[in-house]
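During the first year of the project, the team set up a workflow for recording each protein of interest as an amino acid sequence followed immediately by a discrete structure-token representation. This format lets reviewers and collaborators read both layers of information side by side without switching files. As required by the reporting guidelines, we include two representative entries from the current panel. The first entry is reproduced here exactly as it appears in our internal archive.
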Amino acid sequence: MPIEVSLSELLVKLRQMPYGVLLCSSGNNGASFPSDYETFSWLGGVSKVARIDQWPETNQFQFGFLSYDLKNPLQGLNSKYNSSLDWPLMGWISPDFISKGVNQTLNIDFTPSSLSHWKSGENPHFFPKVNRTTYLDKVDQVRNLIRQGTVYELNLCQAFEANDIPTDPISLFFHIRNQKPVSFSALVKWEHRWLLCFSPERFLRKSGSKLTSQPIKGTIGRGQSLEQDQLAANKLENSEKDRAENVMIVDLVRNDLAKVCETGSVQVPDLMKVYSFPTVHQMISTVTGSLKKGESFESVIQSCFPMGSMTGAPKREAMIQIDELEGFARNLFSGSVGYINADGNFDFNVLIRSLYLDERTKKTYCFAGGAITYQSEPEEEYEESLLKAEPLIQMAGGILKRT
């Protein structure tokens, strides 16, 4: 059994031990989205050992992650390109020490001096791996694929890279989280790698026999005044393009859940509902189903991963085209982090709005993008990808360099 410790004690051990995961919900001071990691304000654990590239063991509590590139063995696919990240396909820890807070405010403060300095002592520049013209051309290529009937929708992303890493990833995580409290943030240490995630999106939750997925499709920036903010929310709610994106992904998720759920049990209790977050409004739908008896965590993931909101439709063909178009293997980006307990219940997020640190290469990465439909305007899609990346980079003290 893991030893339960306070959050401050857990953070000390996280600096000392090679593996650790901390999951944080929005608590009472965050987004309007009402779903947390069950009832926890935070839930974390650390370990000296890890289980890598194997499915989790049953009948014990474990934290873990799934890399997007797990799609290759699951779907019989290959990645044409290499990844700048080098995370395993999946990893699990049974914590030696664990910490949890229930319905508590999570607001850990660090002195500003510990937050403003990266290793270089300067504000790092994050450079896109492709220039604006290339990205616009890729959007047009996706629109051509849609015109040809190859895909109906495709999630196209780009990568940003900084030749620097923060002096203290833990301090930086809480510094950003205090500004951006969201429902599915996560801090992960995996040997020389760090993940600082500020995701608003749930991939999949199992509670008893009930499965819940909450895909996000549709994003718009917050307004500077109450009137402008309401106009922005209304614009998103009535956007034909964003509604089309959301409905297509909901249909894909319904199809994924139907493979492992009782016939007729898959429902959509919330369709295209707009929620407000610190920097953006987003359109979120909720899809639920009753899991068939005998279905395991492995079989559920094999049927539903990766999440449709980060691929497109049809899913397999979209993944093939993504690998060709993006020019890099996503690795952990658009994968998932979460936990599975001894009863087989679990909750996993979608890895977006994240920073990926590598202490060996001394580099930090960020990724962003969006769903492309035939109605997409290349310039608008390019700006939306920056809208998603730039606030996080700025909160981290970085500068996004446009090309």
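The second entry, processed by the same pipeline in the following quarter, appears below.
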Amino acid sequence: MYVCTTDYPKMKREQIALVGDNASGKSRLAAAFAGRSGAKYISFRDSYGSYGDRNFFMQQRWNLFTLEWDPPTAGEVLLNEAAESRNPADARRHLAELTALFSMDPFLDKPLVTLSSGELRKFQLARALLSGPETLVIDNPYIGLDPRTRTLLSKLLERLGETTHLVLVLSRAAEIPSFITHVIPVSDGQMGEKVPLQAFLDGVLLPAVIRMRNITIRYGERVVMDSLDWTVREGEHWALTGANGSGKSTLLSLINADNPRAYAYDIELFGRPRGSGESIWDIKGKIGFVSPELHRAFRVDAPALDIVTSGFFDTEGLFRKPSAEQRSKALCWMEEFGIGHLAEIPFLRLSSGYQRLCLVVRAFVKDPPLYILDEPLQGLDENLRFRVKSLLDKYCGAPGKTLVMVTHYPEEYPACIDHSLSL
């Protein structure tokens, strides 16, 4: 889960990731480093016994109300540890700050064995930070977490990194969050040379399909986006989230070459810097695109089959004669999405939902390597949403296919989503 965020100030501290395969020795090296340096070490193994309370066991989580004793709440454990510290008054003040930072109030009264994986992460982080360590070593921070919780945890760690040096121990390069500055590869119990994050990722991950650096967007005095860095790699599937007006559609328009400002920014597509000689049509030819803005502007009253077929040429309507093969493929795609019966009906006579679905099929018809789908299911009924969502998983989840999708309804995201960017 490679997560970018613009919610917090840029950090000046060096943040490290130790990355290696299973049994490479990275956890052993991290624990040894923490022992020698005095850093605080946390190991996440998705077990309630990992922080020293041996009397916790699986049955207690599901048989909470049959226990003969009351298990401690998260708040009680933290308050007890604060009271046992060298300076209890300072520790209690620090605990109040951590409670606010990690938004822990909703679960402090819960028995510890009932905490979710995400709540347990926050509890363990707060417990480790009560002693005020300058460096925190975190082993497997993302294990067992769903995409949304991984995103929230990355934001939390990013904010924590403003005041604390972090060392994350990870098994997968794709899990490295964007606030990490340097990576140390580990193999056979040996640490390699420390390298900058971007150089490491370029060496071990698939090629970047989209790379944006220092993107700042202003409308008058209003800053919509401030110094955003974002890399999307081949085969990744991104959920782009944020409130109305947060800049999602503007960001996508920069990628799709619809925004004239695109050439003023540091943007690379498919390994080529924007403005290095490629035409708008070269860019669009590799992208399947649909958006509310495209839908509003699409006022061509041609048969629906012509609208779908125009996706081969990235034009708003057919201005050249398609081949018989192209028309046949377009019709097959319409059948696949359940709208083959609309082929001869003029586009503007269709309902708004069917118009949107025609434009979705238009984005798929040329089978591009990159799909940018901004609210693709808007206006569709429940049956069509279910069908299209299943097809998004089928086609966008195929090897080598890259997806960036926007929706305000989390349940509309296909299962293949594995990355998230929140604006």
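For the second entry, the following points were noted during internal review. Confidence is low (pLDDT under 50) at residues 1-11, 46-62. The first strand starts at residue 4 and ends at 5. Both points are flagged for discussion at the upcoming steering committee meeting.
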